[in-house]
Design a protein that fits this description.
Elements (H helix, E strand, L loop, with lengths): L1 E2 L3 E3 L2 E3 L6 E5 L6 E6 L3 H15 L8 H17 L1 H12 L3 H25 L3 E5 L4 E8 L3 E4 L5 H15 L3 E4 L6 H12 L7 E3 L4 H9 L5 E5 L2 H14 L2 E5 L4 E5 L5 H13 L9 E7 L3 H13 L19 H16 L3 E4 L16 E4 L6 H4 L6 E7 L2 H9 L7 E4 L3 H10 L6 E2 L18 E2 L4 H6 L2 E7 L9
Parallel strand pairs: 1-5, 8-9, 8-11, 9-10, 11-12, 13-14, 13-18, 14-17, 16-17, 18-19
Antiparallel strand pairs: 2-3, 4-5, 6-7, 7-21, 12-20, 15-16
The structure holds nicotinamide-adenine-dinucleotide (NAD).
């Protein structure tokens, strides 16, 4: 049992302003494994004051290359504690250890390395020709930023936001989810170790009320939010009203389109990690599998075999592919969707309940529905669990129509032996990232984000860095030349 009695506020370990406590419950054993302070309004106020002081301090004025060096040190310090962090994710949210190191930790350090490389070359100041004379276009830190973090890939989402903020020179207040506060304590130690200037980062684990307090706080200029579409709408509305800068990374219901010429023997095994990674709790999960009518039975057979082959159990066991869901309410929600699938007429082909022999823990069997109509609830709503649906289509146009018949537009893929035919499909699907014959649809150096209800704005790449910058145009006298 771990117990913490301080919060990381503005670079100091400080006693919290209240005695509120978060109990971290193991999704595998259902036992309390840690107690940490829950941040309250007073803690947010202190963090904002520290961030404002840091914004006026030396760090935001450093060159891009100097800020890049900080981000690189952060990446290296995380790498040095990678196994410890991976084990924390397995303990606090049930990520299989077979995926935790790569999916949770190295994905984060690779994203940070990308931010560092970008900060070294990004034009934070450039002179452009203007209508009357030269203009200095400057990219300045956006101000005090907030990173609101979901529980499913906490360090990775921190890396997407904090990497950009530190590269841009903007202080950041991080709010981890109450389900996953423990990795934040290791992150605080790492930030101490790399001697990040005080005030640049605070880490305040808490629930949605404090999240909303941070979003509304007059000292916060920019909100980077990742979470559900329902919460994102609320955050976006507040930011709109208060005219705050805001990036929203929200839910998904992505489709993998299997074209008729696809090699199923290679495509389906590659698709499985994308569909079921992190126990199906991934925003980019491709949970709708679109199969051509001519090969429908072959696709169903291949997917069913692959789903049945997933080993379920204790996520600390390295041979396990699918662990428990994060919380009891998440397990109940997923089982509720399985009931709905059956009630609406889809055929349950694999799984559908609690795995045999696992009496403790919030486990749900990897589950496959076939004969799914895209208008059914299980094809429209984000389930966020290991539940897949195979949907038939008639020709590539119909496949694109079905893929686009969704409120969401986050990721997706197409599987084919004709890359040009795949590109043709990729260009038509209304989604922020897409893969051709690839299980990964998210590139750590290029923009990532959603169309439609999957979000507003982009993270990663120059577009993502720009979201943490304000742009200023300084009109220079005609004939101005900068000092050599
Ligand atoms: P959630 O929306 O319940 O919570 C996300 C975070 O927002 C938490 O820290 C929560 O405390 C906070 N929050 C909730 N309501 C808030 C409010 N009104 N104001 C301020 N903060 C608030 O989501 P979750 O269950 O933690 O995460 C799962 C969801 O996140 C899924 O929908 C998933 O698709 C999405 N997600 C999206 C991405 C992406 O990049 N698009 C990545 C990971 C997860």
């Amino acid at each position: 049992m771990q117990t913490k009695d301080t919060l990381y506020i503005g670079g100091e370990w400080i006693a919290p302003s209240t005695s509120n406590v978060i109990e971290v419950i193991s999704p595998t054993t259902e036992e309390v494994i840690a107690r940490v302070p829950e941040a309250a309004e007073g803690d947010v106020d202190r963090a904002v004051e520290a961030a404002k002081a840091a914004l006026a301090g030396p760090y935001p004025k450093l060159s891009g290359a100097e800020r890049a060096a900080t981000v690189r040190r952060l990446s290296q310090a995380i790498q040095a504690r990678s196994q410890e962090l991976a084990d924390v994710f397995t303990a606090e949210m049930g990520t299989p250890s077979s995926w935790s190191l790569m999916g949770q930790v190295f994905s984060s350090t690779m994203a940070l390395d990308g931010w560092a490389d970008l900060a070294e070359t990004f034009p934070f100041e450039e002179i452009r020709p203007g209508a009357l004379g030269p203009v200095l276009v400057r990219k300045e830190p956006v101000g005090v930023s907030a990173g609101i973090i979901p529980w499913n890939v906490p360090l990775f989402i921190v890396a997407l936001k904090l990497g950009a903020a530190l590269a841009a020179g903007a202080p950041m207040i991080l709010k981890p989810s109450p389900e996953t506060p423990l990795d934040g304590y290791i992150l605080g130690e790492i930030l101490d170790e790399i001697e990040l200037p005080k005030g640049m980062v605070s880490i305040l684990p808490a629930g949605r009320e404090i999240g909303e307090y941070i979003v509304r706080h007059p000292g916060v200029d920019k909100v980077g939010f990742t979470g559900s579409t329902a919460a994102g709408r609320k955050v976006g509305a507040i930011c709109g009203e208060l005219l705050k800068r805001c990036t929203l990374e929200l839910g998904g219901k992505s489709a993998a389109i299997i074209l008729e010429d696809a090699d199923l023997a290679s495509a389906i095994p590659m698709l499985m990690p994308s569909a079921l990674m992190n126990n199906g709790q991934a925003c980019i999960a491709q949970t709708r599998i679109l199969a051509p009518r001519a090969r429908y039975d072959d696709v169903v057979e291949a997917v069913a075999q692959a789903v049945k082959a997933q080993t379920v159990g204790d996520p600390a066991d390295p041979t396990v592919a699918v662990g428990p869901l994060v919380a009891e309410r998440q397990r109940d929600r997923v089982l509720g969707y399985i009931d709905k699938g059956k009630a609406e007429g889809a055929t349950l082909t694999v799984g559908g309940g609690r795995p045999a022999g696992l009496d403790k823990g919030w486990f749900v069997e990897p589950t496959l529905f076939v004969d799914v109509d895209n208008r059914m609830t299980i094809a429209q709503e984000e389930i966020f669990g290991p539940v897949l649906a195979v949907i038939g289509y008639d020709g590539p146009e119909d496949a694109v129509r079905i893929a686009n018949d969704s409120d969401y537009g986050l990721s997706g893929s197409v599987w084919t032996s004709d890359v040009e035919a795949g590109l043709d499909v990729a260009r038509q699907v209304r989604t922020g990232t897409y893969g051709i014959n690839q299980f990964g649809t998210l590139d750590l150096r290029n923009p990532f984000g959603g169309f439609k209800a999957s979000g507003v704005g982009r993270e990663l790449g120059p577009e993502g860095l720009s979201a943490y910058l304000e742009t200023k145009s300084i009109l220079l006298p005609p004939g101005y030349t900068p000092p050599a």
